[in-house]
Design brief:
Layout lengths: L13 H36 L15 H11 L10 H17 L19 H10 L1 H11 L3 H32 L4 H9 L11 H14 L11 H4 L9 H26 L10 H22 L5 H30 L1
Catalytic activity: a quinone + NADH + 5 H(+)(in) = a quinol + NAD(+) + 4 H(+)(out)
Family: Belongs to the complex I subunit 1 family.
GO cellular component, one term: plasma membrane
């Protein structure tokens, strides 16, 4: 391991910078493909669950429908409302997207973690970067000079701040079990004897995590920041063209990143028999994504007061209980 990371002690040169750029481009191309067909999979799955056909016109089985939709967005006029704060309005989607892409740097896709970083503060890095997206969302809602956008931005801020607390505390249980915030070490701790994924000893923490993650992603039944029936489209109501695409892209990149984080923390990441590690990782992430889409097809939206009350009065106490139980279990095992 020391040999692999020996470059850390060396100054950056042209070769190292070029490798970083190539790695970032490869990950970006990969995630764009994942997002494209995650949207297709969502539309098809929800269609089947609701006795509809779903996309089936553009390309065989509708496989090119999402690509056509993206192209349509990219060539649409980029409209800026007359009374909007122009500079902030233009930069907000970028501020929302970049953290969603940057968090992928610490998600280990396989045992070799090619194109990803080996960071001893990987968990802290993910939590800190993901919290920055709310800045873009709030600024976009405020700068639009639209009451629906402003309400959507305020809802998003309240929701993300509230649910980041139980999300982080549920992850602390895993960190305590593994003795590390390095996501690679957390997977290796689950592989080592006794071979038990943390979904078993951390089941309560996982329940808190998956609920908090759903709220952090603003997925149904916690999709209050957008709430089409109330706020048109929330904070992105006034956005069009490629700037709307940036907000949309950030949402689905976070869906993949949060699914990857959950698979890494609770289901052993790339670990599994017979198949290559990256395939196991892909299977586990797909199961998480399927779960989020399943919720969207079946659950009604809850009220804002219910959402915030549930975070502070239920999830946070449960996450504290999980931490105490984890500390006791850690003490008994050692």
């Amino acid at each position: 391991m020391a040999d692999f990371f020996s470059w850390v002690d060396k100054p950056l040169d042209t070769h190292a910078v070029l490798n970083m750029i190539i790695g970032a481009v490869v990950i970006l191309a990969f995630i764009l493909g994942v997002v494209t067909y995650s949207i297709y999979f969502q539309r098809k799955l929800i269609g089947w669950m609701q006795w509809r056909i779903g996309p089936n016109r553009v390309g065989p089985l509708g496989l090119l429908q999402t690509i056509a939709d993206v192209l349509k967005l990219l060539i649409k006029e980029d409209v800026v409302p007359e009374k909007a704060d122009r500079n902030i309005f233009l930069i907000a989607p970028i501020l929302a997207f970049f953290p969603s892409f940057m968090v992928l740097a610490v998600i280990p896709f396989s045992a070799n973690h090619v194109f990803t970083a080996y960071s001893n503060v990987g968990v802290l890095y993910y939590i800190a970067l993901s919290a920055m997206t709310i800045i873009g969302v709030v600024l976009g809602g405020w700068a639009s000079n639209n009451k629906y956008s402003l309400i959507g931005g305020m809802r998003s801020a309240a929701q993300m701040i509230s649910y980041e607390v139980p999300l982080a505390m549920s992850i602390l249980g895993v960190v305590l079990m593994a003795g590390s915030m390095n996501l690679v070490n957390i997977v290796e701790a689950q592989i080592s004897f006794p071979y038990v994924w943390y979904i078993v000893p951390q089941f309560l923490g996982f329940c808190v995590f998956i609920i908090s993650a759903t709220a952090e992603l603003s997925r149904t039944p916690f999709d209050l920041p957008e709430a089409e029936s109330e706020l048109v489209s929330g904070y992105n109501t006034e956005y069009s063209g490629f700037r709307f695409a940036f907000f949309y892209l950030a949402e689905y990149v976070y869906l993949f990143a949060m699914s990857g984080l959950g698979a890494t923390l609770y289901f052993g990441g790339w670990s599994g028999p017979f198949l290559p590690g990256w395939i196991w990782f892909g299977i586990k992430v797909t199961c998480f994504i399927f779960f989020f889409f399943w919720l969207q097809a079946t659950m009604p939206r809850i009220r804002t007061d219910q959402l915030l009350t549930f975070a502070w009065k239920v999830l946070i106490p449960l996450s504290i209980v999980n931490l105490v139980l984890t500390a006791v279990l850690k003490y008994l095992l050692h």
